[in-house]
């Protein structure tokens, strides 16, 4: 039995890329809600605020945003991880006061 591992991996990668969310160019409120884990109402509110850039009005109620707007929104919301200094912190002393009568 002849098995080509490289060809098998390429086939799997092609399937994953074809199913990826980046292949869409326009997103509805439901798509955005699913992508960010929000409710559809919250997604509609953020779209109406203009946070996703250009809005394409499919109808007065239904609006669509572009892939570029979604990627810019994600970039603006991405935060770098904090890096802590490696210096040692001083030992904290606890002053035990006499609480008095208990």
DSSP strand count: 3
Bin the helical content. Answer: 40-55%
Order of helices and strands: HEHHEEH
Beta-strand content bin: 5-15%
Terminal-residue CA separation: 83 Å
Strand order of the largest sheet: 1-3-2
Give the rounded overall mean pLDDT: 81
Structural class: mainly alpha
Helical region count?
Answer: 4
How much is the radius of gyration in Å? 26 Å
Extract low-pLDDT stretches. Answer: none
Which sheet architecture does the biggest sheet show?
Answer: 3 strands, antiparallel
Shape: flat
What does it look like?
By secondary structure, the chain is mainly alpha-helical. Helix content is 43%, strand content 9%. It has 4 helices and 3 strands. A 3-stranded antiparallel sheet has the order 1-3-2. The chain is flat and about 70 Å long. The termini are far apart. 10% of the residues are buried. The mean pLDDT is 81.
List keywords for this structure.
single chain; mainly alpha; 102 residues; flat
Draw up the topology in text:
Elements (H helix, E strand, L loop, with lengths): L4 H15 L6 E2 L1 H8 L3 H10 L5 E3 L5 E4 H11 L25
Antiparallel strand pairs: 1-3, 2-3
Helix pairs in contact: 2-3
